[in-house]
């Protein structure tokens, strides 16, 4: 898969196609920003908040699954908060010992394929299921898509800063 820095531009009036393209773009942007960092750089923080690039990566893997699988589909998932210390939603991000960046990048893209399937099979106006993440009044698939998209955009920007501090490479 090429790691394109080119923002997608679809002239399709299909909002699902636009959402899929932008989510794919940001997953690839995250991968591109991590590519070339050493193992030490991936696991070292240079930020006052203390998070590392690997911790941000695992957060994105879990975040997308929380919203589309556990949230929208209402499927039970193991360790929905597994990116947080002690499985507590407000805990700091953590990466289990022995997990590699390659494994997390593969999981990121596998989650993306699952998201694509959700979008292919459901109407954007459909509300998420009750019983997984939501106990009442779940949001629409449109809202979930925009929420996940803003998470990716915001955290890709965070990785720009982390990358620049790590080795001087500027995010694009």
UniProtKB/TrEMBL annotation:
UniProt-recorded name of the protein: Damage-inducible protein DinB
InterPro entries with a match to the protein in the record: DinB/YfiT-like, MST-like
Q: Which Pfam families match?
A: MST
Which species? Answer: Isoptericola halotolerans
UniProt xrefs under SUPFAM superfamilies:
DinB/YfiT-like putative metalloenzymes
Could you tell me which Gene3D superfamilies the record lists for this protein? dinb family like domain
């Amino acid at each position: 898969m090429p790691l394109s820095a080119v923002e997608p531009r679809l002239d399709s009036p299909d909002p699902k196609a636009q959402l899929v393209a932008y989510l794919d773009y940001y997953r690839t942007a995250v991968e591109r920003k991590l590519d070339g960092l050493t193992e030490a750089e991936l696991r070292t923080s240079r930020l006052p908040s203390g998070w590392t690039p690997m911790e941000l990566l695992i957060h994105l893997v879990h975040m997308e699954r929380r919203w589309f699988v556990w949230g929208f589909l209402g499927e039970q998932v193991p360790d929905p908060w597994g990116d947080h210390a002690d499985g507590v939603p407000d805990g700091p991000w953590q990466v289990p010992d022995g997990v590699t960046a390659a494994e997390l990048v593969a999981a990121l893209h596998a989650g993306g394929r699952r998201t694509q399937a959700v979008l292919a099979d459901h109407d954007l106006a459909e509300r998420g299921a009750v019983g997984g993440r939501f106990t009442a009044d779940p949001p629409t698939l449109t809202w979930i898509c925009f929420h996940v998209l803003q998470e990716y955009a915001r955290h890709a920007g965070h990785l720009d800063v982390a990358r620049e501090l790590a080795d001087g490479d500027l995010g694009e």
